Automatic annotation (TrEMBL):
Organism: Anthropogastromicrobium aceti
Cofactor(s) required for function per UniProt: Mg(2+)
Protein family: Belongs to the thiamine-phosphate synthase family.
Entry keyword annotation includes RNA-binding: no
Protein name: Thiamine-phosphate synthase
Binding site for Mg(2+): 73, 92
A Pfam family of this chain: TMP-TENI
Catalytic activity: 2-[(2R,5Z)-2-carboxy-4-methylthiazol-5(2H)-ylidene]ethyl phosphate + 4-amino-2-methyl-5-(diphosphooxymethyl)pyrimidine + 2 H(+) = thiamine phosphate + CO2 + diphosphate; 4-methyl-5-(2-phosphooxyethyl)-thiazole + 4-amino-2-methyl-5-(diphosphooxymethyl)pyrimidine + H(+) = thiamine phosphate + diphosphate; 2-(2-carboxy-4-methylthiazol-5-yl)ethyl phosphate + 4-amino-2-methyl-5-(diphosphooxymethyl)pyrimidine + 2 H(+) = thiamine phosphate + CO2 + diphosphate
GO CC terms of this entry: cytoplasm
Known function: Condenses 4-methyl-5-(beta-hydroxyethyl)thiazole monophosphate (THZ-P) and 2-methyl-4-amino-5-hydroxymethyl pyrimidine pyrophosphate (HMP-PP) to form thiamine monophosphate (TMP).
């Protein structure tokens, strides 16, 4: 399964921190009902067994909505449960090695902060790039901020789709207009909201406006 630009319009990254009394399944379902077009399972502190369980469950859920489902960082889990792909950072396994491990048909996303990183990731077989943090964010402690100019330069330098990530909300997303992105990736702008379905729907509308 390869991803098209439209699949990357509203890319949701999970975060257990926001769950409260709810299950990951429930909140992801709500976000899919709101129109999320891509889901990444991001687990930093879950043991392998539970990670695998969550991954298998969410894969089935996303499949029912015909939405691509990828795993953050963990190539072995992605391989074991046959996810649609994987997203890796600059300090994780390099895109070429991921491709060799997962095969030609899986989606590989790579995080990039510079034009050089972006061009190299594309050359090594990345299908899309996640560029950020485009705004200050509390979701990632090590996030380096990327300027609008750099974001735009990256979009111009590569032919694969680029999504912006980091601190994006429905109130500031318009600032990314004209940059060349085909979508945004968010965590708290969806999963940190009281009404997840509405938050996703409103955000999707806002992104659509700046991309059309």
């Amino acid at each position: 399964m390869k991803c098209a630009d439209k699949d990357l319009l509203l890319y949701a990254v999970t975060d257990r921190y926001w769950l409260g009394e709810r299950t990951l399944h429930d909140v992801v379902k709500e976000s899919l009902d709101g129109g999320v077009t891509f889901v990444q399972l991001r687990e930093k502190h879950l043991d392998q067994t539970h990670f695998l369980e969550e991954a298998k469950d969410l894969k089935m859920l996303c499949k029912a909505y015909n939405v691509p489902f990828v795993i953050n960082d963990n190539v072995d889990i992605a391989l074991e449960m046959d996810a649609d792909g994987v997203h890796v950072g600059q300090s994780d396994m390099e895109a070429g090695d991921v491709r060799a491990k997962l095969g030609p048909d899986k989606i590989i996303g790579v995080s990039a902060q510079t034009v050089e990183q972006a061009v190299l990731a594309e050359k090594r077989g990345a299908d899309y790039l996640g560029v950020g943090a485009v705004f200050p964010t509390s979701s990632k402690d090590d996030a380096t901020e990327v300027s609008y100019e750099t974001l735009k330069a990256i979009c111009q330098a590569v032919s694969i789709p680029v999504i912006a990530i980091g601190g994006i909300t429905k109130d500031n997303v318009a600032e990314l207009s004209g940059s060349g992105i085909c979508g945004i990736a968010v965590i708290s702008a969806i999963y940190g909201q009281k009404n997840i379905k509405d938050a996703a729907a409103n955000l999707k509308m806002a992104v659509q406006k700046i991309i059309d």
